[in-house]
Amino acid sequence: MSIWSEPQPDSRFVVVDGLRIHYKRDGQGPALVLLHGSASSLQHFDRAAGLLSESFDVIRPDLPGFGLTGPRKDRDYRIPTYTATVADLLEALEVPRYALAGNSLGGNIAWNLALDHPERLTGLVLVNATGYPEKATPAGMRLTRNPLLRPVLRRVMPRGAIERNLRSAVGPGSAVVDDAMVDRAYELMSRPGNRSAFVDFCNTDQPDRSAQISRIALPTLVLRSASIDGQHFTRDIRGAKELVHPHGGHLLPEEEPHWVADAIATFLGSSAGTPTY
User: Fold this and answer.
1) Is there a contact between 60 and 23 (Cβ–Cβ < 8 Å)?
2) In 65-104, which positions are buried (b, 16+ CB within 10 angstroms) versus exposed (e)?
3) Nearest CA to 199 among 141, 127, 266?
4) Alpha-carbon distance 30 to 276, whole Å?
5) For residue 47, what are the CA distances in angstroms to 42, 55, 109?
């Protein structure tokens, strides 16, 4: 019996942009929004969110195309569309100001939102974020761009392939990828429409806004694994702080939740008195 493909007791839903967005919210304090990466879900931040909810009002959505939110009818998976949807979600939840932290795709959406709506953000945390054109594309995403495999992957994504992709996304010494994690990813990817949404996302031509990153003038923390390439946020965002994990992989919030949560809480606490723009 599936336990991941159905709402949990703490699941919440709100309709935004014609989508029934699944999210969870817990804790008290300043608002902190956590955005997961591609082929993932809000559970990516489960352990980090549990730690952060002691000091923050933590909001975690399933991004369109993933988790219990599921696919967009218009199949529009461009980053600007994601950014607008996240901004509208927070408006619907009546959260006018918030810190924003995102991993991978979530980090890409976060810095784009910092460009488009800087007045709403109190701080920005980028965890192995994407957005620079030279960043390497994971093998699983490259497979979806094969015209022969594309229709097959819309119908089925084997559990073994999902497990291999997860193991390739963590550090070499990590033991975080277990049966429960693979089951979660497989069950959520198998929900109606999610496989096709992932294929559509991977085959979407994304606009390159990396030349605008230097315009960001918000307190920014960059959390990066030493093995991750294509990271220039510290170079391009004036005053950005960076912490590098020596052994982590791409999925730092799941691999090192205490390290990530401590870094975010410390940064947001120290930047509370820093003017935002």
Assistant:
1) yes
2) bbbbbbbbeeebbebbbbbbbbbebbeebeeeebbbbbbb
3) 141
4) 15
5) 11, 14, 22
262 φ/ψ angles, rounded to the nearest 5 degrees? -60, -40
Tokens describing residue 206: 């994304």
Give the model confidence (pLDDT) of 113-131 as tens digits. 999 999 999 999 999 999 9
Written as six digits, the tokens of 215 are: 């315009």
Percent of the chain with pLDDT over 90: 88
Q: How many other C-beta atoms are found inside a 10 Å radius of the C-beta of residue 166?
A: 25
Q: Side chain identity at 136, as an amino acid letter? A: A
Structure tokens at 169: 């996304």
Render pLDDT for 48-87 as a digit per residue (tens, 0 to 9): 999 999 999 999 999 999 999 999 999 999 999 999 999 9
pLDDT of residue 1: 46
